[in-house]
What does this fold into?
Amino acid sequence: MNEDQRSRIAGRKISGRRPGAPVSGNQENSRSGGRGAGDGDRTPRTGPNPARLNEAASALIRVLTFEHPADAVLSRYFRERPQLGQQDRAFVAEAVFGVLRRKFWLDHLAPQANVRQLLLLWLARVAGYSSRELGSLCSAEETLWLNSTRAQGPLPLSAESDLPPWVIERLLPEYGEDFVRSLGRALQEPAPLDLRVNTLCASREEVLAKLRSNDIISEPTPLSPLGLRLRDKPALNRNPLFAAGKFEVQDEGSQLLGYLLAPRRGELVVDFCAGAGGKTLMLGAMMNSQGRLYAFDVSEKRLANLKPRLKRSGLSNVHPLVIAHENDAKVKRLAGKIDRVLVDAPCSGLGTLRRNPDLKFRQSPRSVAELTVKQAAILASAARLVKPGGRLVYATCSLLAEENRMIVEQFLAAHPQFAALDCGELLRRLGIAVGNMPQLQLWPQIHHTDGFFAAAFERCA
It folds into this structure.
C-alpha cells in the first residue's frame, strides 16, 4: 500500500482502489499532516454525543459496503460535511476504524447488531466508556441490550484475533494458535508514526533534537539507522523540518527494504512499483543523488504525488516513468543494464491491518489468487533488467506464504541465473540485527513494524 493511500482526518487526498484490488507497493506510514483516519482504537480526544454518534453511524454505513477503501470513504464523507469540526471528524474516524479493527469480535458478541449498536458496543467494550458516560446516548432499551452483550465461554480464534477465518487457515499450519493470537492482537493496535531522516540534508541526531525543541517527543527506531518513532501523532505537514525535506513519514519496516537493496552512488537503479515514491526517495538519498534512479509505476496519479516530495527532498537523480504494464517498451529498453531493482509488489496488504483494517473484509482467497499471478509476472519482468552481478529485491506487505515464500520458490525454479542472498546477513553487514532471516519477515507483534516480507537475489550470469 502506498503512503498516499492513508487519509487524514481533515480529508486529505488518498488513492482509491477497486473492491478487493491489490494494495500497491511502498507500504509506508501515513502521509505527514496530523493523525490518520485509521489511527485509533484509543479513546477519542473528545467524548461522544448524540450528533457525533449519528455522524459515525452514517459514515460506518458507507464504509461497510466495502466498495472503496475506508480511508477514501471517510475523506469523501468529511469533504461533503464541511460543517464538522476537527474534534467531530476525529471522533467519527476513530469510532469507524475502531469498529473495523474489532468487528469479528463485536459480531461474535452481538451477531445481529445494527450499525448504531456496533458503535455503542465498541464505545463500551473497547474504547472504555462507562454506562454513566454513555447514558445520554442510549435509550433504556439500548442500555439493557448493552448489558446483555457479555462474552460467555471461550472465544473462537477468529473473534479473539479479529482475523478472517481464511487468513487463519493459511497461518495456523505454519505458526500455530499462540502466534496467530498474538499477531491478531498486535494488528488490533494503532500503528506508531515513524519518520525517515533525509540524509542529504540532515542527521538523525539533528532531527531528533529539533523535534524535541518543538515539543515533539521521538526516539530512534531500534532497527533502521535512519528512523525516528514519535510518541504521539502530531501535525507534521507545517513543521519547518518537513517543509525543508529533512524527514519523510515511513514505517521502519519499509526503511529496511532500502537497506536490503543498498544502492550505491553512480549506479543505475529501478524502483519497479514506485507508487508515490516513499522508498524511491530513500534510495535516492542512499545514492547521494548520484547515478540514475528510475521510478516506475502504472499509475500516473500516484507518480504525480511524488513531485512535491521530490522537490522537498533535494534529489536530482530520480526519473519517474509511467508504464502501461510490466512488459512496457520502457522497461524492455533497460534489460540487462540495471545494477539494482526493487520490486515492492502489489499485494493483499494484510501486514498493514493496523492502518487499514478494512482490508480484512475487502480481500479474499480469490483476490489473493489473482494477485499471485500478477506478482510472479512483475517479478519475472523486473528480473530481466538486472545485469550480471546486480541485485534484485522482492517485497510485499503481506503475511501469506503464497504471496511471499511461494513466489520466491517459483521464481528461483524458473530463473537459475539468480541466486538467493541471505537477508539477515545483508542487514548485519550494515549494522542492522534482525536475527537469522534468509528471507526478511517482519511481524507487528515481534518487530513493532507493519508486516513485511522481502527476499534478495543476485544475478550470477
